[in-house]
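G., the chain you wanted modeled:
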Amino acid sequence: MKTSLAKMHNSISWAIFTGLAALFLFQGVPVRSGDATFPKAMDNVTVRQGESATLRCTVDNRVTRVAWLNRSTILYAGNDKWCLDPRVVLLTNTQTQYSIEIQNVDVYDEGPYTCSVQTDNHPKTSRVHLIVQVPPKITEISSDVSINEGSNISLTCIATGRPEPAVTWRHISPKAVGFVSEDEYLEITGITREQAGDYECSASNDVAAPVVRRVKVTVNYPPFISDAKGTGVPVGQKGTLQCGASAVPAAQFQWFKDDKRLIEDQKGMKVENRPFFSTLTFFNVSEHDYGNYTCVASNKLGHTNASIMLFEINEPTSSTLFQEEKTTAMTPWKGPGAVSEVNNGTSRRAGCIWLLPLLVLQLLLKF
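Predicted structure as tokens:
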């Protein structure tokens, strides 16, 4: 009977102790320890969201009762589980260590945890702070946008994470890649056609790989003719005029001669339009085809034009070609190693003069 009463008294005392400890902890006042040498748990435990966190408390054989508390909530008292959270489990309860595990950690689990022990009726505590890291996540970003040249544009990229992620913008273009902003908001005043392209938002906090999203910016501008050169063609030959223009949206092309529009399938010629250039082809150029042609490029923002000349050139005749060949054949070859006829004759005479003394000497020896 006395033993049962003693156990009940100890249980009630322990419950009162843990309740008071929780009250003090909730108010931010640590429970005093009568033994300054009581080993403390680690100061911080850092885990990523979704992982498991292990909270350890070192004890010795003088400890009679142990408990883990989270703010005002008792998680475990000895081997008994006091919380209803199935993610919290008891790992170790020995004479040297008392540890629990919180599985699938989330951001609301972050905060202080207290290991409370009783030694010789004196309560002691040791604290650990759980830090939950969350990979970066882009929660809001601007949609692809189409805007006229010279207008202002604002792009937004909102990201979350723990620690708070750093957000940067950079411009991705064929000519260059460069940072344009280190903020969630990107403002461009008086945008130009060179500033068109993809804009990449990156959110990083060193917890996981950076998260990257892109926004496509299309800059509309009126046509600009960049290629319009005249060409010369002999009568009866094939000739082509070409007109190239850059524009967004792509330009529509028209050809004119003397204020008369040329249709695509007009007899003896063909108009072929592509997104950035147009060609006017003459299959058998006649005297009537020579002259000045106008190429007009237009889109919804405006139009421009250029004059292109188709002119006549003379085709070489057969008599002209024969005369050129004859002149070439009569011209002495003066290339490397060439020897003229004069030089050859001189060489032969020099050889004869050199042989004459030898003949005279041979006749004298006979006599």
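The chain has a mean pLDDT of 80.

Shout if anything looks off.
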